[in-house]
Specification:
This is Zinc-type alcohol dehydrogenase-like protein. It comes from Alkalicoccus luteus. Belongs to the zinc-containing alcohol dehydrogenase family. Quinone oxidoreductase subfamily. One of its GO terms (molecular function) is zinc ion binding. The chain is globular. 29% of the residues lie in helices and 28% in strands. It has two domains: 188 residues, Medium-chain alcohol dehydrogenases, catalytic domain (Quinone Oxidoreductase, Chain A, domain 1, Alpha-Beta Complex); 140 residues, NAD(P)-binding Rossmann-like Domain (Rossmann fold), CATH 3.40.50. Strands 3, 5, 6, 7, 8, 15 and 16 form a seven-stranded mixed β-sheet that branches. Strand 10, helix 5 and strand 11 form a beta-alpha-beta unit. It has 339 residues and is of the alpha/beta class. The protein has ten helices and 16 strands.
Length: 339
């Protein structure tokens, strides 16, 4: 089958970074479904894994951890899906990605595609929706019922990106006062459209901007950008007994002592944890994606696709990687495959 993969870890502009390859169609494990992939979307995990580093692969490494397509085969223990079902999912970084004609994924981390969305619109959603959902409701412990969050606030750093675009919507539905960070007019406008009540600039100190809006502390902080850069500012404005969650690894040591007097907490969110370690509760990703699908079909959530490309071709993927690495993306970029 056709796929786009890599043998070396190179800059995206290098024509050898991502290549057209031919690999064998995957054989399903007991809990696997085999999906005929119709569209994939890009995420920072794709560019981070592809980024220049030592080492070569004997077999092509296939990226791509956001996909939508049609089930064409099921493993012996599959109970959630049948052939012909349209699905969407984010997959596992412990396995080959979905930048290929066919892809194997564990049924427990996939869900039925929203019927109101096309494959590209659906492919934009899984990884960011899982990350936003787990980060807010599982890690930060935010209640989903709006009446339980009266008077509470959340600061979402990097609000106009893929995860931020979903987190803004979920936070607004949960009844929180939603503060997003953005630094350009187009990202500010997008964040407001997605549900932000207040916008501040993440390049500047948080406290003066928040106090200008009559906000002195925030109950929750969801950091989606440059954890170490924003650490002191987050520790300054988080409420006593509040919580900070980040999805961005840091090359610097974080001074957790800044949170001690406030008895504030810090926790990581990595949406691949359940799939990577096959945790006992990994089916929770199936369930939350089913809920997201229902909300998308009901119109209470909106897809965050903003750009489309077409073709299962290495040149298309290299250009898309460069776009993502430019730091100018708003929402999600999706690549649709042609027959």
């Amino acid at each position: 089958m056709k796929a786009v993969g890599l043998y070396e870890y190179l800059p995206a502009e290098d024509e050898n970074s991502l290549q057209n390859v031919t690999v064998e169609r995957p054989t399903p494990k007991p809990h696997d479904i085999i999906v005929h992939v119709k569209a994939v979307s890009l995420n920072p995990v794709d560019t981070k894994i592809r980024a220049p580093k030592d080492g070569k692969e004997e077999e092509p490494k296939i990226l791509g951890w956001d996909a939508a397509g049609v089930v064409v085969e099921t493993g012996s223990d599959v109970t959630l899906f049948k052939e012909g079902d349209e699905v969407y999912y984010a997959g596992s970084v412990g396995r080959q990605g979905a930048n290929s004609e066919y892809h194997a994924v564990d049924e427990r981390i996939a869900a039925k595609k929203p019927s109101s969305l096309d494959f590209a619109e659906a492919a934009a959603m899984p990884l960011t929706a899982i990350t936003a959902w787990e980060g807010m409701f599982d890690r930060l412990g935010i209640a989903q019922a709006a009446e339980k969050n009266e008077g509470k606030s959340i600061l979402i750093i990097g609000a106009a990106g893929g995860v931020g675009s979903i987190a803004l919507q979920l936070a607004a539905q949960a009844g929180l006062h939603v503060i997003g960070t953005a630094s350009r007019k187009e990202t500010t406008d997008w964040a407001r459209e997605m549900g932000a009540d207040t916008i501040i600039n993440h390049h500047d100190d948080f406290r003066p901007q928040l106090e200008q809006e009559g906000i002195h502390e925030v109950d929750y902080i969801f950091c989606l950008n440059a954890t170490d850069t924003h650490w002191d500012k987050m520790a300054d404005v988080v409420k006593p007994q509040g919580m900070i969650c980040s999805i961005v690894e840091t090359g610097e040591k974080l001074d957790l002592g800044l949170l001690k007097q406030k008895s504030a907490g810090f926790i990581w969110e990595f949406m691949f944890t359940r799939a990577l370690f096959e945790t006992e509760d990994m089916i929770e990703q199936h369930r939350l994606l089913e809920e997201v699908s229902s909300r998308l079909d009901a119109g209470t959530l909106k897809t965050t696709i903003t750009e489309r490309r077409r073709g299962l071709d290495a040149a298309v993927f290299r250009e898309a990687h460069q776009k993502l690495e430019s730091g100018t993306m708003i929402g999600k970029l999706v690549i649709e495959f042609t027959e």
